[in-house]
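comment on this one:
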Amino acid sequence: MQQRSTAPAGLGEPSTSPVSSHNEWDPLEEVIVGRLEGATIPSHHPVVTCNIPPWAARLQGLAAGFRYPRFLIEQAQRELDGFVALLDSLDVTVRRPDAIDFRQRFGTPDWSARGFCNTCPRDSLLVVGDEIIETPMAWPCRYFETHSYRSLLKDYFRRGARWTSAPKPQLTDELFEADFRPPADGEPMRYVLTEFEPVFDAADFVRAGHDLFVTRSNVTNRMGIEWLRRHLGPGYRVHEIESRCRTPMHIDTTFVVLGPGRVMVNPEYVDLGRLPEVLDSWEVLVAPEPDPIDDRLLKITSMCGKWLNMNVLMIDEKRVIAERHHATMLRALEEWGFEPVPCALLHYAPFGGSFHCATLDVRRRGTLEPYVR
């Protein structure tokens, strides 16, 4: 449902909001796609290293603050260009953030850091209806990441969108568990985040009309989930999906809504018997095991887990962009009645994700509807 907005004096006539997206599958009309220019290896911090193996954490600490190697950028850029061309061919309007030098140092009275990149708009911005929300991210290196989207945000606002920014977190030591260690299999779940203040990444949420689903993670705490629940108000419900991942971060390789009443779940991370009761009438599709990746360098440099085969982008209820390499997933999508559109984006993994992560659907043609009981 596209919303009408009355613009303040001097900003033009009332207009239909250019931002309008209520779920993950309505026909896609406009999308923001991330950039690779200026990408910088994240500054060293426990909230960054808690999700990677100890040897990788040590390597990341040595490389933190330096630009990504050119050969990694070039491989990913070729694939990203192909992805953008594919979206163009599907008549989807593609918008891009500004190119930023993420090596610049910034800080608050409590800490300083260099930046990261703007490859994944899905993390820092959340679209709910005609509103676009800047999220309070827990990684210090991402504190000002949304500044690279400000040209777009101001344009959307001037044309009628609602624009909100969640409270900027302090990110002091009180937010992070001292000497945190990820839980081993069989141990009770624990997270690097405390409940000192609300923090969340938008990529820990997926939308299905009046209902949103979220995973608590090492970048999203309960206080962050509650902030969004109160902000959205009684017109929306927010349901938590329990994840068995020992280092959870982002829902889109755990619980992926593919259409009305249809969801794909990660069999390693999701206990089917513990899904929220509101999903009892939904069709639950179990994701196939990812095809192995033989590229040793990609295994070392990837910031993502093996289940990136689930990180797909719905063009509409039938068509879905999925990774060309993961042939098993492509076959599964066909068997489930979808029309997979193969595309290569495997080398985007060192920068944080794949098709869903690399995009933010700004406008989908559809209305706000209930999809769960």
Summary: Residues 70-89 form the longest helix (20 residues). The longest strand covers residues 28-33.
